């Protein structure tokens, strides 16, 4: 059987743990939202004629990283 939350100190630590967990979940959701926004913008720029190499230079990443970002978006949309 596990240890029971017995003292005020333990309850406070458990409350802090729950707060940190909630913040981590919120941060992960926000990161996923930002990744979707990034892919949408990349796809718009590519449609306007920018190359993956151009975008990679602007972002300071490799062309392969751009290619992967776009591919992940296509996979998630079922293309």
Describe this structure in words.
By secondary structure, the protein is mainly α. It has one domain. The protein is built from three helices and no strands. Helix 1 packs across helix 3 and helix 2 packs across helix 3. It is rod-shaped. Pfam families: KORA (PF16509). InterPro entries: Cro/C1-type_HTH, Fimbrial_Adhesin_Reg, TrfB. Keywords: Transcription, Transcription regulation.
Q: Give the strand content.
A: under 5%
Number of helices: 3
Specify the structural class: mainly alpha
Q: Indicate the overall shape.
A: rod-shaped
Measured between the Cα atoms of the first and last residue, the distance is: 49 Å
Largest sheet: none
Helix percentage range? over 70%
**Whole-number mean pLDDT:** 91
Protein name: HTH cro/C1-type domain-containing protein
Organism: Rugosimonospora acidiphila
Domain HTH cro/C1-type: 41-69
Keywords: Transcription, Transcription regulation
Helix-strand blueprint:
Layout (H helix, E strand, L loop, with lengths): L7 H40 L4 H8 L3 H15 L2
Helix pairs in contact: 1-3, 2-3
Attribute tags:
single chain, 3 helices, mainly alpha, 79 residues
Q: How do you describe this structure in short?
A:
The chain is mainly alpha-helical.
């Amino acid at each position: 059987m596990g240890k029971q939350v017995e003292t005020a100190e333990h309850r406070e630590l458990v409350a802090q743990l729950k707060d940190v967990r909630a913040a981590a979940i919120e941060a992960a959701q926000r990161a996923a939202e930002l990744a979707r926004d990034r892919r949408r913008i990349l796809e718009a720029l590519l449609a306007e004629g920018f190359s993956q190499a151009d975008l990679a230079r602007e972002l300071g990443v490799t062309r392969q990283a751009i290619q992967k970002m776009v591919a992940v978006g296509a996979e998630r949309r079922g293309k």
